[in-house]
């Protein structure tokens, strides 16, 4: 049985795509740029909001001034609409409850900004997670493995064999691989099975219920 399971947030625990798209389109409109279609955001999210803005603005418009304005517009909207449409994926609440009751320590390692990650996890999962790590000033974003090592440090887990990292994107697969822990690709999120499998995760899971026996084995 794994003693620590670390989850990505967006596209793994919670389907946040509509709210992220709405906030980014609000920022794009506020900056005088064209909005993007919902399905385009599947490939834009996951690398932190700065990279989200760089990908969303028209080519050649990613100046520091424009990115700063996008951030201001985005945060002013998203803070008030962070879970208008966002919901945990089907089966996720049951998975988290079962792991928590089994004594597994739970952590989040996300490229979402820290305050946003904390708000969503506390809103949907109360106190089930021991550690919530989002994007913070001066701390490298995924796929840098430091976020995994920080979660291990904060939970007192030292053996990498006792740790699993689960996520839905190429960034997540690289993060788990870079950290040297068991890496789980979940196929219900924003990216394709093909993208995940190309990074050879240790396990692929098509549903939260299929993931539970793997983590408790």
Which helices and strands appear, and what pairs or packs with what?
Layout: E1 4-7, E2 14-15, H1 17-30, H2 41-44, H3 49-56, H4 64-78, E3 87-88, H5 92-101, E4 105-113, H6 114-125, E5 131-135, H7 146-155, E6 163-167, H8 170-179, E7 182-186, H9 193-197, E8 203-205, H10 208-216
Parallel strand pairs: 1-4, 1-6, 4-5, 6-7, 7-8
Antiparallel strand pairs: 2-3
Helix pairs in contact: 1-4, 5-10
Main β-sheet, spatial strand arrangement: 5-4-1-6-7-8
Number of strands: 8
User: What CATH architecture of the largest domain would you give?
Assistant: 3-Layer(aba) Sandwich
What is the overall pLDDT average? 96
Helix content: 40-55%
Strand content: 15-25%
DSSP helical segment count: 10
**How would you sum up the global shape?**
globular
Order of helices and strands: EEHHHHEHEHEHEHEHEH
Query: What's the CATH topology label of the largest domain?
Result: Rossmann fold
* Name of the CATH class of the largest domain: Alpha Beta
Could you name the ranges where pLDDT drops below 50 across 5 or more consecutive residues? none
CATH homologous superfamily grouping of the largest domain: HAD superfamily/HAD-like
Total domain units:
2
Distance between the termini: 5 Å
What does the main sheet amount to?
Answer: 6 strands, parallel
Assembly state of the chains shown: single chain
Q: What is the radius of gyration?
A: 17 Å
Give the structural class: alpha/beta
């Amino acid at each position: 049985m794994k003693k620590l399971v670390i989850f990505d947030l967006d596209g793994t625990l919670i389907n946040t795509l509509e709210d992220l798209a709405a906030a980014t389109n609000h920022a794009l409109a506020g900056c005088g740029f064209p909005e993007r279609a919902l399905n385009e955001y599947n490939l834009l999210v996951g690398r932190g909001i700065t990279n989200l803005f760089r990908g969303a603005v028209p080519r050649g418009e990613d100046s520091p001034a424009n990115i700063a304005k996008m951030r201001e517009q985005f945060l002013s909207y998203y803070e008030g609409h962070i879970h208008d449409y966002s919901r945990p994926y089907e089966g996720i609440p049951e998975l988290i409850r079962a792991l928590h009751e089994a004594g597994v320590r739970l952590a989040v390692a996300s490229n979402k900004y820290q305050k946003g990650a904390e708000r969503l996890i506390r809103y949907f999962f109360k106190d089930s997670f021991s550690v919530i790590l989002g994007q913070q000033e001066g701390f490298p974003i995924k796929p840098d493995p430091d976020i995994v090592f920080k979660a291990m440090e904060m939970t007192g887990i030292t053996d990498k064999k006792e740790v699993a990292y689960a996520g839905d994107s190429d960034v997540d697969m690289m993060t788990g691989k870079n950290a040297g822990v068991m890496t789980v690709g979940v196929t219900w999120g924003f990216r394709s099975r093909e993208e995940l499998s190309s990074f050879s995760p240790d396990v692929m899971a098509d549903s939260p219920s299929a993931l539970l026996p793997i983590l408790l084995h």
